[in-house]
Amino acid sequence: MFIVVAVSAACSVVGPDRTPRRDSGVENGAVTPADRAQPQAPLPARPPESGEQLVPSLASKVLYLQPLGAELSTEAVDLVVTALREFYGFQVKGAPSRELPPFAYYPPRKRFRAEKLLSFLAGEAPPDAFRVLGLTAVDISTTKGRVQDWGIMGLATLDGRVAVMSMFRCRRGSRSEAHARERLGKVAVHEVGHTLGLEHCPTRGCLMEDARGTNTTTDREYVMCPHCRELLRQQGIVLPPDPAPPWPRP
Hints:
Layout: E1 10-14, E2 20-21, E3 62-68, H1 74-88, E4 91-94, E5 105-106, E6 111-113, H2 114-123, E7 131-136, E8 140-144, E9 147-157, E10 162-166, H3 177-195, H4 226-233
Parallel strand pairs: 1-9, 3-4, 3-7, 6-8, 7-10
Antiparallel strand pairs: 1-2, 5-6, 8-9, 9-10
Helix pairs in contact: 1-3
């Protein structure tokens, strides 16, 4: 169940059928009881297999950063690249900027439908791309429950290949452009986490925490919690052990 808000800024997750999954909103940015959920109980650690090397397992994988429409500042792109490398160990490559596809435009709200952007990104992915992350400055949206057009910061296919995010809602209420860039970097880590199979995390401050309808949730996030890291490890994805976030500790 979702609450329609005047300024929604949620992240969304879609399954292989492109249907939104597991997201919620708050009215006027108020904190709900669910927002105070306790961290999940730690998973039992999977013992290393014989001969297993605990090194970043994504170091040989290529993530393409695909600008869509008017390009963002070099500072914004650099921060996103740094965040993705620090948290996942990817080889991050920049793709040439592409125009936003006209078929994704939603005239009633003058913004772009994120699920259509995902389809576009999937169809244009380079052959060597492990993941593709679309980056745009325009407002994006998708359908969430009974809300036909819900403004979002990002959208990703759960355990899929593509994600898209926007700077537009990162700027709303930000203290400065640098603050908005930090929000964008956190959204990047969050959306890519969805493509690796992570769903929203109830741990307060985890980078996989549900935005709950407000962009201010990102301001309390810092790193990925041990539970989410262990979930990836149990899939054989070993993250860099000691990432240095390109944003200050809350």
